Amino acid sequence: MILNPSRLDMKIMNVSKKYFSLSALIILLLFVLTACGSSSPSPTRPSMTPTAPPPTPAPPPTGTVPSDFETAEYNLDWSLDAINASEAYARGFTGEGAIVGFVDFNFQLNNDEVDWHPLSQDKDQQWITMYEAFLGVTAPDTDHGQWVSSIAAARKNGIATHGVAFDAQVLAVDFFSGVDMHTEVQDGITFFVSDPWGYLVNNGARVVNKSIGFDEEDFIPNPPARNGNEHYTISNAARVVELGGLLVASAGNDGDPDPLVSNIETLDLIEQNNLWASGGYFLVAGSIDESGNISDFSDRAGVLKDFYLVAPGEDVAVSSFEFPIGGFGSGTSFSSPHIVGAAALLFGQWPQLEAFEVAEILLSTATDLGAPGVDNIYGHGLLNLDEATKPVGQTTVAVEGSVAPVSVTDSMMVMGQAFGDASPQNLESVMILDKYDRDYYVDASTAVLATPTDLNFNSILDLRRSQSGGNWQVNSDMHASMVMNRDSLSLDAHRDTLTDIEKINKRQKLRSWYISGNINKNSRWVMGQGRGLAATLDIVDNSPVNDTGLFLSSHQQNIVASSDNSFLAGGLILDSRNILSFGFMVGDYKGQGYHAVSVLQDDLANYAVETRMTHLFDGGQMSIGLGVILEEKSVLGSRSSSGFALADKTITGTFSVKTAWKLGTAFGGNWTFSGQAKGGLSDVTTNQISLFNGFNRFLSTQWAAKLMAYDIFSKGDRFGFSVSQPLRVENAALMVSTASHFDVAADAPVFVLEQVSFSPTGREISLEAGYHLQQGTWSMSANLIRRFNAGHRASLNDIAVLLHTSKKF
């Protein structure tokens, strides 16, 4: 239901039929009693005391931490600190762009301490004259309008104090301005009814302060006779809510258990006519002292507890001509401008918010005082700008095209080794949205986790020391091999300290096994678990070189290798010189279901097929291979999720060349040489809603050359040198769509699409010397490795030495 100003005034006129002079006098008295906002007996002005002269005015400081804003102006009184205003300022909230509205008395529109809106309206003497003549009283003469305006929005300029929203603009309308006037005639009386509330909202004020009202004791049993037949009055403040604004009213200064009757009647009018439908809202402001206790004079929350907040209202600093260096006053009239200023900070930052949303934010983020929860004294509690300017409720990543929330906490990326330190370069300011679609900007680059650069000695030692198994010749055509992981054996002494999950994951389990054989003299086959496909095809090809366990750098060579891989391969001996081999593998990148980081929880499936043609030479062989790797929801081992999702699937075509040669005997040993190189072309597809809109087709490379000798120092030993480059992405680029700002008109983020490099900054080259000796049940290994650009990170070089001895029992 839309109510026009005259309809809103009918309630006053209906009252006036029986108590006309009474109701008119009530209006006068409420101006004197509550517009002053004073807890003292004085009906004319709050108690004011001058302060010491301020320092020389200086440009307002800027900063990024709260203490940067806690200046002499800020600390002129205790109120700004009590509502944590400096926390909001440090986040960039100043009220810039917001317009706050005031209906009050005697604004100083020529006082530069406040940024007055050009449409502000001063008092008009003709309406004061009519008002005083009709009631036989004098209109209020205090500068109350100036005082409350300065609390909400006085400039930050090094003079006296500054307001809560020091960059906001104040649209001030004096009670006697006569804006938006219409007339009504009743019982021979012509009412000149001004609608300052509608004027404010219609001219841009999103939040309006109301420090006028009446209470039960303002009714006078025997009102004086009226004078004349013309009377000036204003419409009901419910007009603010009707037009979609936020109305903040002072609770009252009688220490009553409920706020002013006029506030209760305003809420009744709003609810009876469903004025909430406009998106407007109504709040009531009570006062606390510096200790955080409800002020003795403040009306309590009572029946309006669901709409009630408290804010500083005792000894609050104001700025005006009569108090150029600051004065102090008390009353709930000085509490409501704090809430008005707080709302202006939010409206200035997010003009798309509706009034009810701003009210909900202020209520839900208030500091609870008194009895737990919403209570009859403090209502929702103390205004808290620190919490009000933080995200509220579930936060989501702003992602183009999203129709469902995209979780912030689940948006992560764990890079595979091939990407090194590659990371999108424009994640330092990623937009996230809270429950109210308020945009915040966070450094999301910390959610991109790179693979550690250090060599995983634990994994290497695990392979060397924690294995058991054997080799069996089943018959002339079949051979079997099995390797068992024995991690749990080294932990038996501490088993009582492990969690149930750790016990499950540390128990003895199968690491790898395979069975191989011949169907006939021209065919070979192998099946098993726990090897990469390239290593599997080496079994089929019967490679003359075995470097397993000799080099540390060998552990970095496989794109896909896991103890959960299952493989099947076969080979056909085409003639005495040529072998055609082929294999198929099904596996996954093993997740940890209990892990706190969601992106690491799931098993990610991968599949590989490869065919290889091997030509045998006298003393060596050379192979050329073609393969395809299919990864589900990963890119060369990189995991990602939610707003950082990279892929639905990745298909990588591979081309490889491999050679192995027996070089003969020298220095007492049998020398061999092997070399391999592999290139890949990856195609990434995704239909996921993410910041990342797809890769280009990119290349990857890896290579190694190894010189090895057997029985060089002792029977059964192996010694070798290697130079290698682990798998590296060469020219990956990623399309990134990030929100640059929030378009208020469209009520949606504006996205910018750009291509960024997703290749590492360096190229790792590893030089290594390795030695291994097996003597009965004893074994000894030694490795020296020098890495340049370790982990494909430019200028990161390291040296590692590993000495290892073990004995089987």
Please explain how this structure is put together.
The chain is an alpha+beta fold and 809 residues long. Helices cover 17% and strands 35% of the residues. It is built from 14 helices and 36 strands. The strands form seven sheets. Strands 17-18-19-20-21-22-23-24-27-28-30-31-34-35-36 form a 15-stranded antiparallel sheet, covered by helices on one side. α5 packs across α9 (336-349). The protein is elongated and about 125 Å long. The model is unreliable at 1-61 and 485-509 (pLDDT under 50).
Features:
15-stranded antiparallel beta sheet, 36 strands, alpha+beta, single chain, 6-stranded parallel beta sheet, 17% helix, disordered N terminus, 14 helices, 809 residues
Main structural class: alpha+beta
Distance between the termini: 90 Å
Beta-strand residue fraction: 25-35%
- How many helices? The count is 14
Largest sheet at a glance?
A: 15 strands, antiparallel
Overall average residue pLDDT: 83
Number of strand segments: 36
Percent in helix: 10-25%
Give the low-confidence spans: 1-61, 485-509
- Shape summary: elongated
What order do the strands of the largest sheet run in, or round the barrel if closed?
Answer: 17-18-19-20-21-22-23-24-27-28-30-31-34-35-36
Radius of gyration: 40 Å
